Amino acid sequence: MKKIIFGSTIILLSIFACDTLKKTSQPVQTRVDIETPRLAVLISIDQMQREYLDRFGEQFDAGFRRLLDEGAVFNNAHYQHAITGTAPGHATLSTGCHPAKHGIMGNNFFTPGSSEYKMAYAVTDTSTVLVGIDDTDKKIYGSSPFNLEVPALGDWLKAAHPDAKVYAVAFKDRSATLMGGKNADRAFWFNQPTTRMVSSSYYTSKFPDWTKYYVGKEIMKAPLEKGWQKLRPEEEYSASREDDFPYELGTQRTTFPHTLFSFMPPASTASYEARKGMLLWNSPLGDAYTLEFAKAIIENEKLGMDEIPDMLFVGCSVADKIGHQYGPYSQEVQDYYLRLDQYLGNFFAYLDERIGKENYYVALSADHGVVPIPEELVRRGIDAQRITSREYSVMIDSIEVRLQRALGLKNEFIKIANYQGFALDYAEAAGLGITEKDLQRKVANAVDTLPFVANVYLPEELLLTTSTKPDISFFRNNYRPDRGVEMKIRFVEYALVGGRANGTSHGTVYNYDTNVPVIFMGPQVKSRPFDQSAGVVDIAPTLARVLNLTIPGHVDGRPLDYIFNPAMKKEETKSGEK
User: What does the alpha-carbon distance between residue 117 and residue 202 come to, in Å, rounded to a whole number?
Assistant: First the structure.
């Protein structure tokens, strides 16, 4: 059996491509002078659809409500690359570039020329070790932005202001390291066994002692003991389906409440203390802890305390864990966002008091979206389907066997077949006079006959600009000959390919996955919705405008200057006043 690799399950859903974005008139871009703030904060909510702002909006009364009321809110902002995932999404957020340029092709990606045909994790750095917990085994590799090939927003800030502070925190190491960039002071991520935030030796400064006072199971002790209960009465969850839905996938029982005692086997056999780390990872309490730790960074590292601008990146990673298990129409997802609304409100109130409302800006977005669970779509009358990893593997094996017979090949040659596409071994075929292009075309033609496959894109099509295949621009933005599989694949809308028989995922070029929130809030930001099309690549250059930084010429995005009001002139001091 060949190596069929599914890094994470992938969702293929509703058609809506970057090159078919709704055309809206673009305002004339006029650069506005902005008073440099003391702190800029970029918040990424892992797997958040833009649609949640509408569906849950009437129930928001804290952080999201403030963003909607006081922020520039984009209704038509999208990712413009294929294979959306946590690692490429966070790299795009921080660099203003598509994966083809920043080099993070997926959470895991294949390097052509590798004889082992393995998918390497995007942020593993074998030259570093994990730091931040007692008695660390030095054989545990650390994580870093080593594979990131362009500077990130924090690096632009450091280049302009060497004394500026740049920090990042998230539960996921790939979120924190890729947002922080190459020269961050430090990125922190969650270590479940200890419930502490850790880091790696990539960051050369001493790991801060203050972190020992911010252990998750201690900071969140009381809520952990209580467990994840519904925030509101049952009748207020009408925006979601019933709580008990058989196609949800939970490490805990899939109905409320979710407590230290509701884990399913084998997790249920873990010790009481170990389950505290598990519950942090599987409930909104994890992101509550992340935001508390973000406050601790500001407080202990003195971000925003002087006239030199600082940068803080915050990743709410638990949103993705919950979304994968329960799906976007679950009561768990709705309750998560109602709780996050409260957490963000508390965080903004802290910034108001500690930094001053006129001294900071916030941008909020997501690394990708998600599709509803296919079985949920079917009962809503939508032609959706689920193809599990096992089913897909059997289909690809069958195709390979047929091609082996037709071409006279004895050995397996499809080495990687997953949601990203295909990597082939060309050695035996070359000995029979079959070129790489010929073998690729034969595989593509065979795979294209599968009813849930929309297109297979060949390297020659991805390199040339003349191909008219639908959505190919998305795949060009995620294609490099030196990184990633050589043949890309697009499944039909509403088809979930890979993974298990329940739960859901992401990774497509369709609207559910690409349309994410993009919101800016700050002293000179216009408080209103914007229907103009925008890209997630526009976030970093827009924040660069806020920080009065030079935007590198290689960046794919553009600053959204039209969202800013001119700076108000400071009133002259009245005569006799000091």
Answer: 27
Q: Computed from CA positions of residues 383, 386, 391, 393, in that sequence, does the dihedral angle turn out positive or negative?
A: positive
Number of CB atoms found within 10 A of residue 60's CB: 22
- Half-sphere exposure for 2 (CA within 13 Å, toward CB): 27
197 neighbors 293 (Cβ within 8 angstroms): yes
Read off the amino acid at residue 146. F
**Helices vs strands, H then E, count in the chain:** 20, 22
Burial class of residue 274 in the structure, from the number of CB atoms within 10 Å of its CB (0-12 exposed, 13-18 middle, 19+ buried): middle
Q: Provide the CA 261 distance to its chain's centre, in angstroms.
A: 30
Whole-number Å distance between alpha carbons of 521 and 510: 27
Alpha-carbon torsion (76, 546, 62, 313), positive or negative = positive
Q: Which residues contact 87 (CB under 8 A, 6 or more apart)?
A: 104, 106, 107, 122, 123, 174, 178
C-alpha 466/C-alpha 487 separation (Å) is 17
pLDDT in tens, the chain (578 residues): 444 444 443 333 333 334 434 345 566 677 889 999 999 999 999 999 999 999 999 999 999 999 999 999 999 999 999 999 999 999 999 999 999 999 999 999 999 987 789 999 999 999 999 999 876 555 789 999 999 999 999 999 999 999 999 999 999 999 999 999 999 999 999 999 999 999 999 999 999 999 999 999 999 999 999 999 999 999 999 999 999 999 999 899 999 999 999 999 999 999 999 999 999 999 999 999 999 999 999 999 999 999 999 999 999 999 999 999 999 999 999 999 999 999 999 999 999 999 999 999 999 999 999 988 999 999 999 999 999 999 999 999 999 999 999 999 999 999 999 999 999 999 999 999 999 999 999 999 999 999 999 999 999 999 987 888 999 999 999 999 999 999 999 999 999 998 899 999 999 999 999 999 999 999 999 999 999 999 999 999 999 999 999 999 999 999 999 999 998 654 433 333 32
Domains of the chain in sequence order: 38-373+509-563 (3.40.720.10)
pTM of the model: 0.94
